[in-house]
Write a structure and sequence with these properties.
This protein is an all-alpha fold. The chain has one domain. Helices cover 91% and strands 0% of the residues. It contains 7 helices and no strands. Helix 2 runs antiparallel to helix 7, helix 3 (30-61) runs antiparallel to helix 4 and helix 3 (30-61) crosses helix 7.
C-alpha cells in the first residue's frame, strides 16, 4: 500500500497546488471567490436540469412516466439560469438558506446534547460545535454577503494550510520512494 502512495506522490503535489491556489483566491479575493463558487453551483444545476430533461424525453419516447422528471428539469433549468444571470442577488438568498440550515443544525445539536445522558467527554465538543454553528447561522442573517466573505476567508486559510501540508507530504513520499 505504501508503495502505491510513494509511486503516485505527484498526485498529492497537484492536489496541494490546487488547494493553495484556491486558498490564495479565497483569502485575497473572498467576494470574487464566492461569486465564482455561486456561478459554478448555477452551472451544475443547469447541467443537472439538462440531464433531467434528456431523461424525461427518453421516458416520453419509451411511453414511461415522465411528468416528475420533466417538472424537475424545468425547475432546475430555470434555477440554473437565474443563478448564472443574477449571481449576486441569488447568492444572498443562498447564504440566508445556509444560515437557516446552520441555525437548525445548531439547535438540533444543542437539543441532542440536553436530551442525551451517555455522551461522556463528547458533551463539550457537541456544545462548542452546536454554539458555533448556531452563531454562524445567526451571523449569516445579519449581513449575508460579508459573513460569507469572512467564511470564505477562513476556508481559504484552511485550504492554504492544507495545500502546503499536501505538497510537503508529497515530497516526503517522493523521498521515501528514493530511499
Amino acid at each position: 500500500m505504501m508503495k502505491q502512495f510513494t509511486k503516485n506522490w505527484w498526485l498529492l503535489t497537484i492536489n496541494g497546488v490546487i488547494a493553495v491556489i484556491f486558498g490564495f483566491f479565497a483569502v485575497f479575493l473572498p467576494q470574487g471567490t464566492i461569486i465564482t463558487i455561486a456561478k459554478y453551483f448555477g452551472l451544475v444545476i443547469l447541467i443537472g436540469g439538462i440531464i433531467l430533461l434528456v431523461g424525461a424525453v427518453n421516458n416520453m419516447n419509451k411511453k414511461l412516466p415522465y411528468g416528475i422528471l420533466l417538472f424537475e428539469s424545468i425547475v432546475s433549468l430555470i434555477m440554473g439560469i437565474i443563478i448564472l444571470v443574477y449571481t449576486r442577488e441569488t447568492l444572498s438568498l443562498f447564504v440566508i438558506l445556509v444560515g437557516i440550515w446552520a441555525v437548525i443544525l445548531g439547535i438540533l445539536q444543542l437539543t441532542m446534547l440536553t436530551s442525551s445522558k451517555n455522551m461522556g467527554t463528547n458533551k463539550t465538543i457537541i456544545l462548542i460545535n452546536g454554539l458555533l454553528t448556531l452563531l454562524f447561522g445567526i451571523l449569516l442573517f445579519f449581513n449575508p454577503f460579508t459573513a460569507a466573505a469572512a467564511f470564505t476567508f477562513i476556508v481559504g486559510i484552511i485550504a492554504l494550510i492544507f495545500g502546503i501540508l499536501l505538497i510537503y507530504l508529497s515530497f516526503m513520499l517522493r523521498n521515501y520512494e528514493e530511499a
